[in-house]
Amino acid sequence: MKSKVVAPVDVKLMNLAVAVLVLVFVALCALATVRSVSRARAFDIQGITVTGDSRHNNSLTLRANVAPRIAGTFFTVDLSRVRAAFESAPWVRRAVVHREYPNRLRVSLQEHEPVALWGSEGSQGDARLVNSFGEVFEANLGEVDQDSLPLLIGPDGQSAEVLAMYRAVAPLFTGLDMAIEQLQLSARGSWSVRLDAGAEIELGRGNPDEVLPRVDRFLKTLTQVVSRYGRAANAIESADLRHENGYAIRLRGVSTTVADAGKK
Q: Which stretch of DSSP H or E encloses residue 59?
């Protein structure tokens, strides 16, 4: 019977070291091959396909502006940098970038949809725009019909809250053929509106669930109140809805001051 020969420990270690070196060499060769292929000129980005919203941006101009900022090949290009380059263009809210083998990129754009002008409190002359998500963005105001957009004013960072209040309150006024020209949230949390006819109305504090009942009560009784003075609803100069059980109102051409009959 033959006895099994056991290799010395130093021989085992040598064989293991050789095996590890071979694996490392193979891995380095594979890595070098992959890097060489990924950098081959055949995979240089040859074109960009732009889809989606492009009402305010010419796709040719966008590609021309972004292309010089793109570095790398199909495999190495940084998609986050490409996305940021497109999103830095005016009107672009969001860009989604995909690779298209072997050497192209496809970009889908979403533009801002302007729904209102935005002015921070105390800087009404420096109006920006609010999109349908309540986000403030900058763009050429000459590209929008400003007369058709309401002006929303409030503290920085609260544009979404102001837009939500506008969307809740505006339909109540349109029922009486009135339109909100401006809605403002003060730094102390008080709401006020200016109508297209010039009336200034104080709505008080609160969220939509608290403000809407006051507005609804005011509008439901407005016609009856102004008719007592032979006026229409659009004769309002100002109103204050902050009273607990009612509201105060001022009408054009109607004086609430009683002359002193004894005065000579």
A: helix 59-66
What are the start-end ranges of the E strands in 138-256?
Answer: 151-154, 180-185, 190-195, 200-205, 236-240, 248-251
What is the CATH superfamily name and number for domain 114-251? Answer: Cell division protein FtsQ/DivIB (3.40.50.11690)
- Residue range 166-208, pLDDT digits in tens: 999 999 998 888 999 999 999 999 999 999 999 999 999 999 9
Q: Which CATH class is domain 43-111?
A: alpha beta
The number of helix segments (H) and strand segments (E) in the chain equals 5, 12
Beta-bridge partners for 47: 104
Q: How far apart are CA 236 and CA 222, in angstroms?
A: 9
| Global pTM value | 0.78
Contacts of 102 (CB under 8 A, 6+ apart): 42, 43, 74
